[in-house]
Specification:
alpha+beta, four-stranded antiparallel sheet, 23% strand, elongated
C-alpha cells in the first residue's frame, strides 16, 4: 500500500511496478480460500506463507491481514490498465472485504484471529481499527474503478457505527476527536489563527464545552472573538465541505480557558470548527511548545450510565506536511481532506476543501448564575443583541 501511494504522489512508474510485482508474485504464496456469506462470495488469505510441508499452518486467518490485502489489491487494481488483470485484482479486493463483513457479523468485533483460526476463541483485541480504516480506503478505490459497492458500503457503515459507539462507551475519549492547527507567520507582531476541528463519534453527548489556553508567546486584547461552526459534509449538491450553523462569540479572554459552551446540539458524525486569532509577542521557533492544548468536554447519556467525558489533542498546534510532497501543506481549508491525502490521494478527493462563508456578527458571551457545570463551574452563555463591531 505504501509503495503504491508513493507512485500516486510522485508518478514514478518504478514504484507502481514494484508494488504490482510484489502483490502479483507474493500474495499467492499466502494461500487462497473461498466461501459464501449472504449470497456474496468471499475470500481470505493466511498470515504466514501457506504449506504444511514447510511447517506452516493453512488456517491462520487474521482479520487485519485480510483488510490490508484488500487495500493493496484495490489500490493496484485501480491503476492497472489491462482490463482482465484489473478485474481480477478488484474482485480479490471485493471478496476480501466480504470476508471482513462476515467476520464482524460472526464475532461481533474485528478480533485479531479469524473464525477459521484455532486461536479465534481467545477473542484477542488487536489491530481492530486497521480493519475498518483500510476497508473504507479499499472501497474508495473500488468505487473509483467503477465497482458496485452499495451493499459493501451499507454493511461497513453499520459496522463503523457499532464499533465507534461501543468504543466510545468503553473508552470515554473515543467519544470525541480533537485536532488543532495554526496558520500564519510565527514572527513578532504577526497574526496567527488557531483552528480546532472536533469530530463527534457518539450519539449520546450533550452540553459540549470547548476550552483552550493562550500560550505566553501570544497575546490578545482583553476580549477575544471565538468562531464556532458546524461543518456540512460533501453531498450530491456540493463536492466540498461547507459551513452550516455558525456563531461568533465575543468574550473576555479568560473565558476561553474556563470553557465556552458550544451552542449547537451534536450527534455522531458531526464536525465542528472552532477558530480564533492571536498576535505573536515574539518570534517562535517551536510551535509545539508554544501553543495551548484545547479540550472539549461533554456529558454522556448512555442508557447504562451518565458521566462526563473529555478529549484533548495529542499534538499541540501544528502544521501538517505530507511526506513525499512538500507543497501539500495542510491548512484550515484543506485539513478535512488529510485522510484522503494519506489513504487515497486521488485528485478529486484531495482537492476537496472547506468552503467558508462570511463570519456572522459577533455576540457577547457572558457568564450568569443558574447555569450548568461539567467538572467545574461552566455557565451557560448569555447572548446579547448582535453587534457589528468585534471587541
Amino acid at each position: 500500500g505504501t509503495v503504491i501511494t508513493g507512485y500516486e504522489l510522485t508518478g514514478k512508474e518504478s514504484y507502481f511496478q514494484t508494488a504490482f510485482d510484489f502483490v502479483y508474485n507474493q500474495f499467492p504464496r499466502y494461500g487462497f480460500h473461498k466461501g459464501k456469506y449472504k449470497d456474496h462470495v468471499y475470500y481470505w488469505t493466511e498470515y504466514n506463507p501457506t504449506g504444511l510441508s514447510i511447517g506452516n499452518p493453512v488456517n491462520d486467518a487474521t482479520d487485519n491481514i485480510n483488510a490490508l490485502t484488500a487495500y493493496a489489491a484495490a489500490k493496484i487494481g485501480y491503476h492497472i490498465k489491462d482490463p482482465d488483470l484489473k478485474a481480477r485484482f478488484l474482485e480479490l479486493a471485493r471478496g476480501l472485504l466480504w470476508y471482513l463483513v462476515r467476520e464482524y457479523d460472526y464475532d461481533g468485533w474485528f478480533y485479531y484471529d479469524g473464525a477459521e483460526n484455532p486461536l479465534n476463541p481467545r477473542k484477542a483485541v488487536s489491530h481492530d481499527t486497521v480493519c475498518i480504516r483500510y476497508a473504507f480506503s479499499a472501497m474508495a478505490y473500488l468505487y473509483k474503478a467503477g465497482a458496485d459497492i452499495d451493499e459493501l458500503l451499507e454493511s461497513f457503515e453499520r459496522i463503523d457505527a457499532d464499533m465507534s459507539q461501543r468504543t466510545a462507551q468503553l473508552k470515554p475519549m473515543a467519544d470525541l476527536r480533537v485536532y488543532k492547527i495554526y496558520e500564519g507567520d510565527l514572527v513578532q507582531g504577526s497574526k496567527v489563527t488557531f483552528t480546532v476541528f472536533v469530530k463527534v463519534n457518539s450519539d449520546y453527548l450533550s452540553e459540549p464545552v470547548f476550552s483552550d489556553s493562550i500560550a505566553p508567546s501570544f497575546k490578545t486584547g482583553n476580549y477575544i472573538n471565538v468562531r464556532i461552526s458546524k461543518i456540512r459534509i460533501p453531498d450530491q449538491d456540493n463536492p466540498n465541505y461547507t459551513v452550516g450553523e455558525d456563531t461568533v462569540f465575543c468574550m473576555q479572554k479568560k473565558l476561553l480557558n474556563l470553557g465556552v459552551r458550544i451552542p449547537f446540539d451534536v450527534k455522531r458524525g458531526d464536525i465542528l470548527r472552532i477558530s480564533y486569532d492571536v498576535i505573536c509577542k515574539e518570534t517562535i521557533k517551536d510551535i509545539k511548545t508554544n501553543a495551548g492544548i484545547p479540550k472539549v468536554e461533554a456529558k454522556t447519556s448512555y442508557p447504562s450510565l451518565i458521566q462526563t467525558v473529555s478529549a484533548t489533542t495529542t499534538v499541540r498546534g501544528y502544521v501538517f506536511n505530507m511526506a513525499l510532497l512538500e507543497n501539500a501543506k495542510i491548512n484550515s481549508s484543506s485539513f478535512l481532506s488529510l485522510s484522503a491525502r494519506m489513504h487515497f490521494p486521488l485528485p478529486d478527493e484531495t482537492e476537496i476543501v472547506l468552503e467558508d462563508k462570511p463570519k456572522p456578527r459577533c455576540m457577547e458571551y457572558r457568564e450568569r448564575k443558574g447555569g450548568f457545570s461539567i467538572n467545574r463551574n461552566l455557565l451557560k452563555p448569555y447572548i446579547l443583541k448582535q453587534k457589528d463591531r468585534a471587541m
